[in-house]
Design brief:
The chain is mainly α. It has one domain. β1 (3-6) and β2 form a beta hairpin. The model is unreliable at 1-20 and 134-138 (pLDDT under 50). It has helices at 33-40, 47-55, 64-75, 78-82, 86-89, 97-121, 131-137, and strands at 3-6, 13-16. 51% of the residues lie in helices and 6% in strands.
């Protein structure tokens, strides 16, 4: 039986190969997505870690990170996630309508943020545009 170790040397978690990982609570604090975000900033997290924070918990034998990875493996991008319906989520154990709604709401917030950002950068009517501004618009 092969064993592999993961995490920092002080608090080593041993996971049997082929089995799902231990819950995130058993991980060293610096490796937990929520704590990592608060300590180092959201830009330091992977897509799986960000999604795991929204999921909040996994299911028996599968951490929120494992579940997030599985979801992203199927849908590939957050943009693809936003264009899904409940039927496409049925294969994921432990995901009910509430968690799916949370994920889709977070993605929509991001989309609206980006939309506002684009609107703020557009010139107002009557503004004289320079050469660089015209290129920016295209």
């Amino acid at each position: 039986m092969k064993l592999k170790t993961k995490f920092k040397q002080k608090e080593t978690a041993i996971v049997e190969e082929g089995k799902k990982s231990a819950g995130i609570k058993s991980w060293p604090e610096d490796d937990r997505p929520r704590e990592k975000l608060l300590k180092n900033g959201e830009h330091t997290l992977s897509n799986s870690e960000l999604l795991a924070i929204l999921l909040r918990s996994g299911v028996k034998g599968q951490s929120a990170i494992d579940l997030a990875r599985e979801i992203l493996q199927k849908f590939k991008t957050f943009r693809n996630l936003s264009h899904t319906d409940l039927v496409q989520w049925k294969e994921f154990k432990g995901l009910g309508q509430a968690k799916i709604a949370q994920i889709k709401a977070a993605i929509e917030i991001g989309r609206r943020f980006r939309e506002d950002e684009v609107k703020e950068n557009q010139p107002r009517s009557g503004t004289v545009l320079g050469e660089g501004s015209i290129l920016f618009l295209f």
